[in-house]
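Morning!

This is the sequence you dropped in the shared folder:
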Amino acid sequence: MGVKRFPGFRHGADLDGADDGVDSDGAVADGALGGADVNGAGDESVASLTAVADSAPDGAGAADVAAAGSGGAVRGAPSGVDGDGAPWRGVNLGNWLVLEKWMEPHLFEGLEADDENELAGVADPEWLEARIRHHRDNYITEKDFSQIAASGLNLVRLPVPYTVFSKKPPLGGGYRYVDKAMDWCEKYGLKLLIDLHTAPGGQNGFDSSGTIGAVTWHLKPQKVEQAIVVLEALARRYGERPGLFGIEVINEPISYTVFRNSRKQYAPRNPKDAAISTYVPLRFLRQYYKACYVRLRKVLPEDKAIVFHDGFRFGHWKTFFAREHMTNVYVDAHVYLSAIERAVGIHSPWAYRLALLFERHRIRDMERHVPVLVGEWCVENEWAKDMDRGDLTDDDFDAVQEARFRTVTRMQLHCFNEASGWVYWSWKLEPSPQTAPDAFWKECWDFRRAQMHGWLPRTF
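The structure's back. Tokens below.
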């Protein structure tokens, strides 16, 4: 029995993030579905999205289907290597097409806004459109892709919003920059993983979802269908490009435990969101993943990977993909040592070793069933970051701190080498590598700055 289609948009629905709320009972149809209704849709309808997606990318010619390169099948095919046999090693391009205030606060200066949605609601549209265009034109450029390749990396994970194909200002036009990213990846021998980082209504309530505190996406079938339609459009537009590694169907759909523990930090701004927001159930997530796979495989070549985040429930996916007869898929796990530290409250190398030994075992075990991509990690840790200066001179302090960071980096890489690949968060925070972030801890999240400090190897 085939996977049904999630219900399509209501008449007048668009792709620009307008959230009409959720049914009062908060219910989602358990797979019930039907085709997307585009008759009478709004200005940014499914039909207009499809037209944008099917058009040739700016400056792109005909693309050949890659003979190999994505790797990673549940059974049989080799996983975790590129076309040259090298393991996947990459960086995220965070804060380029999905803004995160903590990464570059000056974009939000003078405005009472903490996320993309609030920013679009309080800023003058023309002024913000110009600011966003300048940011996108300058924050990530061709030079970045050249430097990524020169660092010995081979994979770029690109977070995109669900409004990526919208043309509506001030945040529209994101697909043009995905086009550029694809061109530059192909020019410098990199592969591109396009990650759907936000969902209408919010899938985790984090600032990275575009709407702090709101977790309502999964409660309304129209919103779920909207996300899948965007994925299909991405597959149609980029599926034949040799530079495409694959598509990730949603970033960090939140579990009950993470939802409960994050409510204080990420409280909903909107009372309606506060009343109905809730975690994304595993039963729903499995249904969504099955629907995404079936529909993407109709338009996405078999040599392109489909990536599924573990939803903070890593152990639940061992047999799922093989049971559903999925091929060339990866499970994405985000392993932040700083998050583990906060959970256990111990900041010591022996505790890190134990935690990473446990993660290494879990990754190795999962690799027997499905390839694992550690899609986000960084070097932040309290032992190195907040070490006591004591009587050390500045030079001695810097040397000891660098040695601590390098020690923890080696621990993490030893763990993540069990996976089919890893992707650092993030390539940059400030546009220039010579500009220090506004807080020392942020240095850990900037790949270029971490390399500059000697915390990461110069090449991989």
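Headline: The longest strand covers residues 155-160.

More detail when I'm at my desk.
O.
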